Automatic annotation (TrEMBL):
Pathway: Amino-acid biosynthesis; L-methionine biosynthesis via de novo pathway; O-acetyl-L-homoserine from L-homoserine: step 1/1. Its EC number is 2.3.1.31. NCBIfam families: homoserO_Ac_trn. The active site is at S136, D290, H319. This is Homoserine O-acetyltransferase. Belongs to the AB hydrolase superfamily. MetX family. Residues 41-322 form the AB hydrolase-1 domain. The keyword Acyltransferase applies. The gene is metX.
Length: 343
C-alpha cells in the first residue's frame, strides 16, 4: 500500500468567503504508475467522511483486477481540505497561533476544495486527466472542476450528485449540525468536543443515505413479540459510534457547510449555462432509491452537459448505492467507454 503523501501549497489559499488559509497541507495517495505518454491518470474526488485511500473505501471498483486497476492506471485521490485525514482541517494547528481553530475554522466551499486539488495537479505536473470521477460530495467537486478547466479532463463520471445542493439536502445537514451544536462539549474546543452530537448527527444522516426497503430488509425483527431493544435502534447507535471513532464534530460541520455551498451556477449565469462549459465525455449515474440526491438531480446535469449520457441504477441501498453497487457501476462504465470509443 502506498504511503500517504503531503503537499504544502506554496502560497496562502484565498477562500471564496474572502478569508485566507495559510500553510495549507493537502494529503494524497497515488496508486499505480504513470505511463510514458502520461495519459492513464484517474483522479478520484472523495465524499464527505472518506479519505484519500480510495482502494480502502471503493473496493470492487478500484483495486487489483477491478475496473480501475493500479496495474493499468495512475490513480490519484486527494484528501479534501477541511477533512482531518492529513489535510488542513479545523483540528490542524493554525500557523499564526500554533493552535487548532476548531469552530473558528473559516467557511469552505466546494470551489475552495477544487482550488486545492488544482494546486496539487499542477504540483504533480499532470496536464491531462483521462477520467475524473466522484460521487455525492465528490461528484460536486468533480463537476465544479470540470466546469472550471474544461480542456483538462477527457472523461467525467458523476454518481449520485447534483449541480446545486438542494433545500432538502441543506435541511438534512442543518438538522445534523443542530444536534452537534446542542452538545455542550462542542463549544469547549477540544479534539473530542461534540462527540455525542456527532453520534446523533450520523444516525440522522444514515436515514438519508439508505432507504425504507434497505432497513426493512436488514433491520426487521424476527419476532412479533419485541417491545424494546429493536435491531434498527442498535444499528443507528452502532453507526454513530463508528463515525465518532474515526471523525470529529468540527470537521463534520465544516464539510457539511461546504456541501451546502455547492452551486455551479453562482456567478456563471445559472446552472444550465455553467453545465454547458463541460467538454469532457460525461457519464451521469443516478440511483432509483436515492432520497438525498434523487435521480431528477442527475437527469438535470445530463440534460445540460453537451453529449452527456445518463444511466440509472435500481438499488435497495439508496444513496449509498454508489459505494456498494460496484458491479453495476463497472458494467455502466464498460458500456460508457464502448460508446465513447465508437463515437
Amino acid at each position: 500500500m502506498p504511503d500517504l503523501e503531503s503537499f504544502r501549497l506554496p502560497k496562502p489559499l484565498p477562500l471564496e468567503s474572502g478569508e485566507v488559509l495559510t500553510g495549507v497541507e493537502v494529503a494524497y495517495h497515488t496508486f499505480g504508475t504513470l505511463n510514458a505518454t502520461r495519459d492513464n491518470v484517474v483522479w478520484v474526488c472523495h465524499a464527505l467522511t472518506a479519505n484519500s485511500d480510495v482502494l480502502s473505501w471503493w473496493p470492487g471498483l478500484f483495486g487489483p483486477e477491478c475496473h480501475f486497476d493500479p496495474a493499468d492506471w495512475f490513480i490519484v485521490c486527494a484528501n479534501i481540505i477541511g477533512s482531518h485525514y492529513g489535510s488542513t482541517s479545523p483540528l490542524s494547528p493554525a500557523p499564526e497561533t500554533g493552535l487548532p481553530r476548531y469552530a473558528q475554522f473559516p467557511l469552505l466551499t466546494i470551489r475552495d476544495m477544487v482550488a486545492a486539488h488544482e494546486e496539487l495537479r499542477q504540483h504533480l505536473e499532470l496536464t491531462q486527466i483521462h477520467t475524473l470521477i466522484g460521487g455525492s460530495l465528490g461528484g460536486q467537486q468533480a463537476l465544479e472542476w470540470a466546469i472550471q478547466l474544461p480542456n483538462v479532463f477527457e472523461n467525467l463520471v458523476l454518481l449520485a450528485t447534483n449541480a446545486q445542493h438542494s433545500p432538502w439536502g441543506i435541511a438534512f445537514n442543518e438538522a445534523q449540525r443542530l444536534a452537534i451544536f446542542a452538545d455542550p462539549t462542542y463549544h469547549h474546543a477540544t479534539p473530542e468536543g461534540g462527540a455525542a452530537g456527532l453520534r446523533a448527527a450520523r444516525a440522522m444522516a444514515l436515514l438519508s443515505y439508505r432507504s425504507y426497503g434497505a432497513y426493512a430488509e436488514t433491520q426487521a425483527e424476527p419476532t412479533d413479540e419485541k417491545l424494546d431493544d429493536f435491531r434498527a435502534s442498535a444499528y443507528q447507535q452502532y453507526q454513530g459510534d463508528k463515525l465518532v471513532a474515526r471523525f470529529n464534530a468540527y470537521t463534520y460541520v465544516a464539510l457539511s457547510r461546504a456541501m451546502d455551498s455547492h452551486n455551479v451556477g453562482r456567478g456563471r449565469g445559472g446552472v444550465a449555462a455553467a453545465l454547458r462549459h463541460v467538454r469532457a465525455r460525461t457519464l451521469v449515474v443516478g440511483i432509483s432509491s436515492d432520497v438525498l440526491f434523487p435521480p431528477a438531480e442527475q437527469q438535470l446535469i445530463a440534460r445540460h452537459i453537451p453529449g452527456a449520457l445518463y444511466a440509472e441504477m435500481d438499488s435497495r441501498f439508496g444513496h449509498d448505492g454508489f459505494l456498494i453497487e460496484t458491479a453495476h457501476i463497472t458494467h455502466l462504465l464498460e458500456r460508457f467507454h464502448a460508446y465513447t470509443f465508437a463515437h
